[in-house]
Fold each of these.
Amino acid sequence: MEYLVVAIVIVVVALVVLGLLAVGRRGRRVDLPPEPRESSAGPRGGTSGERDEGDKGPVATAERPTGTGPDTGPDTAPVEELEVVEPPAPAIERPEPVQGRLVRLRARLARSQSTLGKGLLGLLSRDRIDEETWEEIEDALLTADVGVGPTEELVERLRTRVRVEGAASQDHAREILRSELLTLVGTDLDRSLHVTRTSTNPAVVLVVGVNGTGKTTTVGKLARVLVAEDKDVILGAADTFRAAAAAQLATWGDRVGVPTIRGPEGGDPASVAFDSVKAGVEQESDVVIVDTAGRLHTKTGLMDELGKVKRVIEKQAPVSEVLLVIDATTGQNGLTQARVFAEVVDVTGIVLTKLDSTAKGGIIIAVQRELGVPVKLVGLGEGADDLAPFEPAAFVDALLGE
C-alpha cells in the first residue's frame, strides 16, 4: 500500500514538471515576420509605393523642407533639414563729421577758384594802378559772375582803400582785397540750418530747384550731414514724376539707416509730403527732409503746385527751411531762377552745387545780393560727403589761393 502512494506522488510531480517545461517553451517562441510577397511593382509591392500590411518593420520618415521639390511619399530617403541663410543686412555707413570735411573741401575750392583771386591780386599789386587797371579789375569780377551791382560797389571801395592806404606790396594788396571781399560776401548773415526739433514737431526742410541742379543728391548728402550730428531723420520722396527719383533717394537713406516715405509713381506730391511730415510727427523724429520735383521757373502751373506742397505740409508742422538748390555753373541764369522760387515758397537758404567745376564763384555774392538770402551749403564734388556748410572766410581765402 505504501508503494502505491509513493508511485502516485511521483506521477503527479512529473506531470507538474512537464507542464512547467511546456509553458516555458511557449514563452520563448519568436514569431518571425512573413516573407515579403513579390510583385511586378517591386519588392515592396503595390503601384503606389505603400508598404504591405504584413510588413511591421520601422519606417524612416523626414519632413520635406518647403520649396525643395514635390513630395514623393514615405519611401523617400531621409532629407536633411536645410538651413535658411538670410542675406546680410547692408552695412550702415557713418558719415564724415562736418568739421572734418571742411579742410578737404577748402583745398579743393582753392584749386578751382584761385584764378580770380590771383588775377585781382596781380592787378592791385602793380606799381601804378591807372584807369585801365581798374577796368580790368571790373571785367575780372563780372566774368566771375559777381554781378554788376556788387562789382561796382567792390571796385569803388577798393579805389578808396588804395587811394588812402596805397598797395605798396602784394601782401598789403591781399589784405585789402580779402577785407573787402569778406564784406561783400557777408560775415554777419545767419548761415545756420534751422533743423532743431520743437517740443511737438520735427524740423521740416523743403528742398526746391529747377531740373538738373542735383536736388535729390543734395537731399541725400544733407541727410548724411544731419546723421553725422546724431539727428533722427526721415526723407520724403515727393518727386513723383521722375521714375528713379524715389529709388535714388531711398538708396541714399539706406546707406545711413534713414527711412524714406514714398508714394506711387505719378502720384500727388503734396500727399507724399504730407505723409512724410505726419510720419515725422508720429515717430518724434528730429528732421524731415522733403525732396520735390525739378521744375522750370517759367512753368506757372508747376510753380503753383510747389506752393501747394508747402501749404499742405504746414497742416502738419511749420516749414523750418526752404533750401533752393542752384547749379553754380549756370551763372547769372541762376539769379532768375532764384527770384521766381523765392516769390512762391519764401526761400530761406541757398545750396550751391558744382562749385568745384567753375571759376565763377562770384555767383555766391550775386545770388545773396539778389535775394537777401544767405548761401548755407556748398557742394564741391561727387563724393557722398562733398557737401558742407558755407564759410565766408574759407571761401575768400580759397579765392586768394591761401
Amino acid sequence: MTERTMRELMEAGEPYIADDPELTELHLCAMAIMEAYNRSPAHDPDARHRLLTELLGGIGEDTALRPPLYVDYGRNITVGARSFANFGLVALDVAPIRIGDDVQIGPNVQLLTPTHPVEPQPRREKWEAAEPIVIEDNVWLGGGAIVLPGVTIGANTVVGAGAVVPRDLPPNVVAVGNPARIVRHLG
C-alpha cells in the first residue's frame, strides 16, 4: 500500500497538513488567477469568463460572479447556469462547493468548507479537514450569510441576510438568524 499525499487526503475529506508544499503551490496558482479576475475590467466580460473558466471547476452559461471573489483553490467549485454572486463572495473550497442553477448570492456571503481540530496540538501542527457544501437550484443567500462545512441548502430555499447556517436546510423554506432557523415554508 502506498502512502497518500496531503492533496489526496484533502480531496478524500480526511485530515491533512494545510501548509503542504503541493497544496501551497495549487493555492498560489489559484491566487494568481483570482487576483487577475479581481482586477479585470467590467467592460470585458469575455476576459472575465475566461479567467473564471480557468479558476473554477465548472461554470454554467449566463452566470456572473462580481469581483472581488476569494477562493482557496477554485478548482473545487462548480457553479450552475444563470447564477449570480454579488461583490465579496468568499468560497473556501478545501472540499467541493457545488452551487446549482439560478442561485442568487448577496454581497459578502461566506461558504466555508474547512474544519479545524478543537485540540490545541493538532491545530498547532496545521492539521485540518473539510466537508463539502451544496447549494441546490434557485436558492437565495442574503447578504452576509455564512454557510458552514458539510451543509446542504435545499432547492428554492431563502437564507436571510446575516444568517449563519450550521446544518442542512430542506427545500422550500425561509431561514434566518444565528443559528439559522426555519421561519416559513414556501408553497
Amino acid sequence: MIGGLMAVAVLAAAGCAVVAWKSSDAGRSTARTDAPVRAKTTPQAQRSPEPSEPAPATTAKSSTPATPRASASPSPPGLPATGPGTFVTAPGTSARTGTGSVLRYRVEVEDGIPVSPAGAAHEVERILSDPRGWTADGHSGFQRVSGGTADFAVKIATAGTVDDICGRYGLDTGGEVNCTVSQTVMVNLERWELATPVYADDVTAYRALIINHEVGHFLGHGHVTCPGKDRPAPAMMQQIKGMHGCVPNVWPYDANGQRITGPSVP
C-alpha cells in the first residue's frame, strides 16, 4: 500500500494502506485513496503521460498523513530512484471477475523500470480475482482493459514518481510507501520488488497486500488497526507501521467469506 505499506512497516500496506469495512462501505467514495533488464513491451502497448488535472487534497487516501514531504531515501542497487513519469499500459483485456458492478482498470508501468507490464498485469488480475479479495463483498467486480474508459489505474513507478504524483494531492509518501489518489493507485517500485521485512520471504504475498489495501481505499475503505493478539492483520491495516500483535495476512476476507477487519483509526 498513501496509500498506501505493509507489514513491517514497509509492507504494510503494500504499499501502504489498509482498511475496515461494513455495510455502509458498500457505496464507493468519490475519493480514490506499496534487477533484470526491463522486458520489452508489445507493439500494442500504449504510452500515457501522467494526467495533470488539479488535485484536491480531499480526494486522496494514503498510509501517511498530509505533511511536508520528506526526501526519498536512496533506492537499493538495481532499482532506479526516479523515472520520467511516463507509463506503458499493459496490452489486452481480462475476463470479468466478481458478481457485482464491474470496475474497469488499467495496469501501467513507468518507462525504464525493471518490471514487465504484461507480468504486472497478470499479478494484479490474479489478486483482484481471488475469492478472498474485494469481490467477496458481493457488489464489486473487476475487469482489466488497455483502452477506452477505465474507472481507475494501477501504476507501478519509481519512488520519486510516486512521491511526485501523491504529493500533488498533499500526501507524503517519503520515498517509501504507496498511495491512492483520485482514480489512481500508485505502487512504489521498491515495495513491489522488495516488500517489507515482515514479508521479505514472500514478496508475492506482499504485492497482494499492496493491491488489496490501495484498491480498498478506492472502494471507500479507511484504515483499521489490529483486532487482537495473534489474529490476522486486516488488509486495511497499515502493516508497514507494525503488526501490533497481529499475524501477517494480505486478504480482506477469509476463505469462508468473512471480513477480516479491526477497529477504525483516523
Amino acid sequence: MSSSNEVLRLSDIKKSYNIGEPNEIEVLHGINFTIERHDFAALIGPSGSGKSTLLNLLGLLDQPTSGEIYLMGEPTSQMDDATRTHRRGQRIGFVFQFHHLIQAFTVLDNILMPLIMAHGRPTKSHIEHARALLDAVGLSQLADRKPNQLSGGQQQRIAIARALVTKPALLLADEPTGNLDSQTAEEIFELFRQVNRENDCAVLLVTHDPRLSKTCDRAIRLVDGRIESDELLQPST
C-alpha cells in the first residue's frame, strides 16, 4: 500500500544482461527502497557497484529483469513505451554532469524544450513558467543568450531549470557538480535544496563526492548490486 507522499518505490528489482547467454550477468540483486516527496537523498557507492544501471531504471530509461517499479503508486512493468515515455516526461526531471544544452537555441528555448517536445509550440503560460524558473535560478537576464556564452555553473543552472519545467515529482541528478569548481558546486547544491524545499520535489543525487553525500538528508549506499545501507543522516524538512 503506497502512501500519498510516495514518489518512487522499488520492489525486489533485479537486472541482468546477456540473458540466456554463457556470459549472462546479474548486476542488481533485489533492490528495495522508497523515495518520498520530502526526500533529499544521495545514491553512493564505488565504481562498478551498479549506480548507473540503477539510475537508468529509476528514470524509466530501462526496464528491470524482474521486480516492480512504482511511480506515483502506478506499476510501470506493463506500460508500453509510449506510456512510459509520457510518465517519465511528466513526473521525472533529469540533470547530468554534462548539461546537454542545445547550442543553437537560446537559454529560454532550452528550458522550454521538454514542453515543446510534449505539446508542440509553447503557450504563453509555458513561457511565463520558464521565465519564472529562469528567475528562480538567478539568470533571468540571460534568457536570450546562447549556452556557449555562459559559464559551466550557469549552464548547469539552466539544465536544472529545464528539468523543473514539467513540474516533476522527482529530480534525478547524475554527478551534477562533478564538472564544477567547489564554490560553484556548493551553489548548485543549494539550488537543489531550494528545489526540494519549495517545489515539493524529491531529489536523488548520484555522487562520488563524500562531502556532498554527507550534507544530504539520506544516503543510500550501493555495493556490488545490493543496498549495503540506507541511512537517515539528518531529519528532512
